[in-house]
Amino acid sequence: MEARPALKPEQQQVFEKLCIELPEIMKSQFPDVPDHDHYTNAGAIGRFAAAHEYKTEAVIAKWKAWIQWRSTYKPHEISETEETIEKQNESGKLKWYKYDKEKRPCLYYRMRFHTLGLATPDETVRYFIYMLEKGLKEAEKLGQTKIVVVYDRRGYDKSNQDPKSIDAGKQLTPILQDYYPERLHCFYVIGANWFYRMMFGIVKAFVSKKTLEKISILGSTEDLLDNFNKEDLLIEYGGVTEGDQKFAEKVKKSKRNGADDGDESEDETELRKLADNIYKSHGVEPPKLSDAM
Fold first, then answer.
1. How many CA atoms lie within 13 A of 277 on its CB side?
2. Each residue of 50-108: pLDDT tens digit?
């Protein structure tokens, strides 16, 4: 099992108190919600406590909101047979494949396979949650509690540009932070060109400091080898296995595949116009390129 970090005496005291109080709150305030242990086990309580710096009132409030959201949205019941899940799965944008050196499941997020108009912001959010639930189940099998993400922007061009992605991101970010605390180990970014840095200026306004600290900008796919074994990477990312042949063939046929920096295939004039429009629509002052990160 993944080792939990040692707690300071005062943190340990808060944690132990929560382990006593939360099951009682569960029984009295959420008697009809099934699977009480899912919400009151030490791992769940520990994640919420760590995410909210062991401040008892904040932990209890966020924990209760989590129960209400999960029992209403029912993310664990999202099925791969739903039409919106099927069509987004077929796009190949998101894919779980093996794990890092510590056996944390890895989600590949490949922006060149983003299809304009394929899904509404709500459908996009639902798909991400479905994929996250799937990955967390795998993490549990591996004795882990966290995942890693490889966010690949290589080959992204104006045919993939979707201003509604910002809306989906604004919806998804608080869900991930509030209802899946301490689930992300690291978010690796490949192909972080100037457009990504500009858009990050919007996204980071909605992301907690803790999450920002987990974002790692990589110069190339070779940098992944610091945290991954070759046999556990997809072929395109330096892997040595022959798995996922369908994906490999799709990459070879993609005219947009190739540049690590993500710049060569993009019409910068069009992207700059898009960036300005997105900033204007969200009431955000465009940062200078040197300050975008």
1. 10
2. 999 999 999 999 999 999 999 999 999 999 999 999 999 999 999 999 999 999 999 99
